[in-house]
């Protein structure tokens, strides 16, 4: 009983600890706690709780629900009953939870039994497979042995077949010798036959094979026999081509043995072409087939290349026999037909030879597949006949126009239009034309130099050439007498007065710049090309002829020489005019022609700059003098050797000078304008300037009173100057209008003259006031006008002259804008070209300095 009590106490203690918060002995799940809690709820709440538990899909929950129902049926009123009930329910729950596992274990045992049965069947199958594998291995071994034996037999068969084929292949080159020999001995064999090409191919293959296998037995003997066959074939082809060409040549030459009534030169061009080319063209197919076979094999065997070269030479020799006499006779006929007309002769002869070269080139390609160097030599020889025919005429031509036109024909019509578009057929012809062109250019240069020397530098002007300003006044009077000037005297753009060949030549040099190069010379009668000084006109014509006919360096040299001589000629003519008329006429004449010259050379797109090389011997004289002074040191061994110093110091130096013709024209124009301004000033107020200079020199020597310094004398000088302004200024302006006929140019030249006149009176006034010590009464007696008064006087004279000119002279409107006016002013009075290496150039004064 004591033990039971102790056990009960232990049980009670454990029951007390089964649900403590810390380390419970039997922790319950949330579901179990809910079940225990439901025992203390009323019946309705138990039913609700039961519904909640039923909603959970859990076998343990179902079992608990059933157990709870048993509790309802069975009353548990003691703790012992509860424990027993709890143990029973717990065991049932455990059994119920293990039910699924027990079923799974049972199922596994069944599967294990099935697997054991399957393994037994597999073991039996493996035993059968091992037995089958052994049998298969036996059969496979026997089959492989059989296959290896069969493959070996097949390989032996293939090797033997290949060996047999190789032997047959190698032997066929040897066995073909007999077949080729039989065919060559056949009298019916022809090079035009279909089997001839096959025979050549077999022969070439055999020779190439033996060449590549010289180590074969008897290869050298067979090679010799094949070479003999090849020689026979080559001879057959050579004979065939030669016979065809010879027959064609005989047919062409046969008409020459016709009766005397028929001559080759009486034939027309069509019959001549049919004669010289028709027979050969008919024979071309017979030769072209053979030459094609030869050309295809010329790189494989030297015999074919030699044969082709022989055929080329024979063909060209036959063509020489046919063409040389005919071409020579035709060229001679052209020289007779165009006797005296060298341009027509050159054009016709070149055109004839162009057709001949092109026809020969086409005919050659009808016989042979490709062009050769031998054909170029043949065309060269034909073209040389043209050169030999025309060259003597070139040496006889003396006219620049003819030489220039010949150069244009050869360069433009022949080289650019024909040779450039057909370089293959006309290449040799082009080389001959180039040589002929060089000869024409050389002749043109020689004649141009002679022309420049004789007709420009050494030109002797006639009285009519120097009849200035009479010629201009006459032309102006003619223009005034005509109410409506004819079209050829009207000026459309003040560029030229008359349409002439000279203007065409010059204006066509630079067509793109025609709108920019506007004339600055007005519509003076001097603008007429016929009124130009002959050397100016000849210079421009000469340059226009040379511009497109010679190379640029040659043109630069000739142009520099021509312009230099032209400037000299114009200056010489101006001096003669000054001697005949007045200084102003000569200077205006020179200014006008220099303006024309500068305007007309502007379109030439070249630099008129020539480099001139010369030797300077200036130091040699000094060195020679030093050598004489140091004769005692001629053989000195030191650095003071006189001979050595002479060699070092006396060596001539090479100097290069740049000569610019454009700047020469500008420089000469500038100089003449300055002289004209100075002479025009002296023409109007020269007495004042001379008086001031003379009195200045006198007063510098002595301060005594001079009779010339009397107020009355000074007044007479002033009145004379004013009289000159009133009466001579109009003549000066009239001369400027007549020569220049351009308001802008006239204004530019007249402005410094006006300023010089005013300055002369101002200088006189200052001189008599200071050096002359004139009193107010003396100044009143002298009546020296002020600068403003002189300006008014000049303006009145200019207006009066302008009114007279408008009434008597046709209106002359300026064709230049304000910008052009500034350019003219800068070019005429403010041109300061860079000094050339020819020597120092005097500084050119500016416009303000001239004023």
From TrEMBL:
GO terms for cellular component: cis-Golgi network; Golgi membrane; Golgi transport complex. It is found in: Golgi apparatus membrane. It is a peripheral membrane protein. This is Conserved oligomeric Golgi complex subunit 3. Pfam families: COG3_C (PF20671), COG3_N (PF04136). One of its GO terms (biological process) is intra-Golgi vesicle-mediated transport. Its main location: Golgi. InterPro entries: COG3_C, COG3_N, COG_su3. It comes from Nyssomyia neivai. Residues 829-851 are annotated as: Disordered. The keyword Glycoprotein does not apply. Belongs to the COG3 family. The keyword Membrane applies. Keywords: Golgi apparatus, Membrane, Protein transport, Transport. Residues 273-620 form the Conserved oligomeric Golgi complex subunit 3 C-terminal domain. Residues 104-246 form the Conserved oligomeric Golgi complex subunit 3 N-terminal domain.
């Amino acid at each position: 009983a004591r033990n039971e009590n102790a056990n009960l106490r232990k049980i009670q203690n454990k029951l007390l600890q089964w649900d403590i918060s810390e380390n419970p002995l039997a922790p319950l799940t949330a579901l179990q706690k809910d079940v225990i809690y439901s025992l203390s709820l009323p019946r309705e709440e138990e039913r609700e709780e039961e519904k909640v538990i039923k909603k959970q899909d859990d076998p343990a929950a179902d079992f608990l629900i059933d157990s709870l129902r048993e509790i309802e049926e069975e009353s548990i009123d003691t703790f012992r009953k509860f424990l027993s009930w709890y143990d029973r329910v717990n065991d049932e729950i455990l059994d119920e939870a293990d039910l699924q596992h027990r079923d799974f274990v049972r199922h596994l045992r069944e599967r294990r039994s099935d697997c054991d049965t399957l393994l037994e069947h597999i073991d039996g199958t493996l035993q059968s497979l091992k037995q089958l594998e052994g049998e298969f291995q036996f059969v496979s071994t026997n089959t492989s042995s059989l296959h290896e034996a069969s493959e070996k037999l097949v390989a032996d068969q293939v090797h033997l077949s290949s060996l047999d084929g190789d032997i047959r292949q190698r032997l066929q080159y040897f066995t073909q010798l007999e077949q080729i020999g039989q065919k060559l001995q056949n009298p019916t064999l022809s090079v035009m036959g279909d089997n001839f090409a096959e025979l050549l191919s077999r022969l070439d293959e055999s020779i190439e094979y033996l060449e590549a296998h010289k180590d074969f037995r008897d290869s050298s003997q067979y090679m010799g026999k094949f070479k003999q066959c090849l020689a026979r074939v080559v001879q057959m082809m050579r004979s065939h081509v030669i016979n065809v060409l010879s027959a064609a040549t005989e047919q062409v030459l046969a008409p020459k043995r016709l009766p005397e009534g028929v001559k080759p030169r009486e034939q027309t061009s069509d019959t001549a072409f049919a004669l010289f080319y028709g027979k050969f063209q008919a024979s071309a197919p017979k030769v072209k087939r053979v030459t094609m076979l030869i050309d295809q094999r010329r790189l494989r065997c030297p015999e074919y290349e030699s044969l082709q070269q022989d055929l080329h030479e024979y063909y060209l020799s036959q063509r020489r026999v046919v063409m040389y006499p005919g071409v020579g006779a035709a060229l001679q006929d052209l020289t007779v037909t165009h006797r005296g007309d060298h341009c027509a002769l050159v054009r016709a002869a070149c055109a004839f030879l162009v057709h001949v070269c092109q026809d020969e080139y086409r005919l050659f390609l009808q016989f042979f597949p490709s062009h050769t160097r031998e054909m170029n030599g043949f065309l060269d020889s034909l073209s040389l006949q043209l050169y030999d025919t025309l060259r003597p005429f070139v040496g006889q031509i003396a006219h620049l126009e003819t030489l220039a036109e010949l150069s244009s024909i050869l360069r433009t019509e022949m080289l650019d239009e024909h040779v450039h578009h057909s370089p293959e057929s006309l290449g040799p012809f082009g080389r001959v034309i180039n040589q002929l062109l060089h000869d024409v250019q050389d002749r043109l240069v020689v004649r141009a130099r002679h022309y420049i020397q004789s007709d420009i530098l050494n030109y002797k002007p006639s009285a009519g050439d120097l009849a200035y300003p009479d010629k201009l006044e006459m032309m102006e009077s003619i223009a005034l007498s005509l109410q409506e000037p004819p079209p050829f005297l009207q000026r459309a753009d003040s560029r030229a007065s008359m349409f002439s060949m000279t203007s065409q030549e010059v204006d066509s040099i630079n067509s793109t710049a025609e709108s920019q190069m506007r004339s600055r010379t007005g519509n003076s009668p001097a603008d007429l090309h016929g009124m130009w000084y002959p050397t100016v006109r000849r210079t421009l014509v000469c340059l226009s002829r040379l511009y497109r006919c010679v190379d640029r360096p040659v043109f630069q040299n000739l142009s520099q020489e021509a312009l230099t001589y032209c400037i000299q000629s114009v200056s010489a003519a101006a001096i003669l005019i000054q001697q005949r008329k007045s200084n102003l006429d000569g200077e205006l004449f020179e200014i006008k022609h220099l303006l024309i010259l500068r305007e007309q050379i502007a379109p030439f797109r070249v630099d008129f700059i020539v480099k001139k090389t010369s030797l300077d011997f200036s130091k040699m004289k000094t060195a020679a003098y030093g050598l004489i002074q140091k004769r005692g040191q001629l053989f000195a061994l030191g650095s003071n050797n006189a001979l050595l110093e002479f060699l070092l110091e006396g060596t001539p130096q090479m100097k290069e000078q740049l000569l610019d013709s454009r700047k020469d024209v500008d420089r000469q124009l500038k100089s003449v304008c300055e002289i004209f301004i100075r002479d025009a000033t002296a023409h109007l107020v020269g007495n004042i300037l001379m008086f001031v200079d003379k009195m200045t020199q006198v007063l510098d020597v002595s301060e005594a009173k001079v009779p010339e310094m009397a107020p009355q004398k000074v007044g007479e000088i002033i009145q004379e100057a004013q009289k000159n302004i009133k009466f001579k200024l109009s003549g000066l302006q009239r001369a400027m209008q007549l020569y220049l006929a351009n308001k802008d140019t006239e204004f530019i030249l007249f402005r410094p003259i006006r300023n010089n006149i005013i300055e002369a009176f101002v200088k006189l006034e200052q001189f008599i006031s200071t050096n002359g010590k004139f009193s107010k009464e003396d100044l009143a007696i002298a009546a020296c006008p002020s600068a403003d008064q002189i300006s008014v006087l000049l303006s009145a004279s200019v207006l009066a002259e302008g009114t007279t000119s408008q009434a008597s002279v046709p209106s002359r409107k300026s064709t230049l804008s304000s910008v052009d006016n500034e350019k003219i002013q800068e070019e005429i009075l403010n041109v300061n070209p860079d000094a050339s290496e020819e020597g120092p150039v005097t500084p050119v004064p500016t416009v303000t300095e001239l004023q």
